Amino acid sequence: MAKMKVLIVDDDELNTIIVETYLTDIQDIAFETIIFTNSLEAAAWLENNQPDLMLVDYMMPDLDGMELIRRFRKDPANDDVPAVIITSSEEERLRSQALQAGANDFLTKPVDATELAARSRTLLRLRQATLDLKSLQAQQVNLNEIDSLTKLLSRRTFLEKGQKDIEQQAPDANGQMVAILMDIDGLRQLNYTYGFPGGDAALRTIATRIHETESETGGYAGRIDGQQFVIILPSASAEIALAAAEKLRTAIESSRIDIYGQNASMTASFGISVAHDGDHWLHSLLERAEKALRQAKEQGRNCIVTFP
Prior knowledge:
By secondary structure, this protein is of the alpha/beta class.
């Protein structure tokens, strides 16, 4: 885990040394200190960096501590970074002003070593808890948007994106939105022969080939069913989609899956549908692709059919 960053800003170098020394009492949290004796330089550093705790002197030339924090808080991304104002003044009004400026705490000089270390430890722990929570939330969002096995878009995310895109599509000289629907041939047999690990290996291999197609065509893909995938080409012709599908079909057919030391092979069937002028529902586009896919299955599988 990376060290946390504690920013110390005071125009008196001796004060920065004292504060840094007091912080050495914090033994259970890994952190590093960044020290500035010029508040303008500190402000410049904050434009491109985010500390995990700010310990800022109030009275400084050019830019006082409250204004430094106030500017820092203008970016909503900095809302949860704890900041402490340190001052030699005991005026009560300064406490309320410091809080209004965005400070989380207020210490009066001469600062007590034990108190500074204790409050800093508490704020760093709160900061770490906040970062951990954000990380978990980001992971949850990612799990909802991405299929965990294939790393393609999840069904819900894919359908939402596709619907939004088809609603916004406009006439394009390069073509219309195209859906390439594919289904793995014989996945049940793979599962029966090699167990679900074998089927999962097949799905991951398919996904790798689909990712390659995404990169080459500028499209995006999702897993919409256990063994069904869809690739959307936002602006293409039926000919371009057919060429992309054929390249993908060939790549899948030539792939070999290592399952428990054995090489397994597989194929896939494809149905292609091009959006019509006036199409505003992804469901209609996918329904036509599904009809084409059924025809491909009826024709012996491992082939491509384009909906007329």
